[in-house]
């Protein structure tokens, strides 16, 4: 996961991107899904990173059934990788975040994931090793700026599982599929 900000015509905006990879004993990891959220009313990078982590946790519960049949028995274990050390440390219960507005969305998502039986491992990565999520976060921030210029104040989400998506919404230009 990754979050990003950019300047829009009417002020700063943010975006968050998430990439889901499935590890396999038969080959390299495979991209099974990706998602973005345009944050038209949010302009802080740490808040965008928290929203990206929240989106990842939220979508864990919505992984399609076909993913569990890919190879091996179904599992409810996930490694969440991001490049924002304070967010990773907070989610792994190794640090705290003082701003309550940043904590609230992730706290709810963490509680829900744990209640549903997910075992979560948190890993910090350098930006160079988080490129796919970074590209999505950049596309999401650009989408947020496009929406803001047109007067939208919502936080739309776009999700793609296994390269299948009904349509890409106007203004969003996601990077090429990684499957």
Folded structure, characterized:
- With 179 residues, this protein is of the alpha+beta class.
- The protein contains five helices and six strands; from the N terminus they run βββααβααβαβ.
- It has helices at residues 45-60, 65-68, 85-91, 100-115, 131-149, and strands at residues 2-8, 11-24, 27-39, 77-82, 119-124, 157-161.
- The strands form two sheets. A four-stranded antiparallel beta sheet has the order 1-2-3-6. A two-stranded parallel ribbon has the order 4-5.
- Helix 1 packs parallel to helix 4.
- It starts with a strand and ends in an 18-residue tail after the last strand.
- The model has no long low-confidence stretch (mean pLDDT 87).
Short structural summary:
With 179 residues, the protein is an alpha+beta fold. The chain has helices spanning 45-60, 65-68, 85-91, 100-115, 131-149, and strands spanning 2-8, 11-24, 27-39, 77-82, 119-124, 157-161.
Keyphrases for this structure?
alpha+beta, single chain, two-stranded parallel ribbon, 179 residues, globular, 5 helices
Radius of gyration: 16 Å
Strand order of the largest sheet: 1-2-3-6
The coarse silhouette is: globular
Query: Major sheet: size, sense and barrel closure?
Result: 4 strands, antiparallel
Which class best fits the helix and strand makeup? Answer: alpha+beta
Helix-strand sequence: EEEHHEHHEHE
Overall helicity: 25-40%
Annotation field: number of helices: 5
| Residue-averaged pLDDT | 87
Task: Give a count of the beta strands, DSSP E runs of length 2 or more.
Answer: 6
What share of residues are in beta strands? 25-35%
Low-confidence segments, given as residue ranges, are none
Span from first to last CA? 17 Å
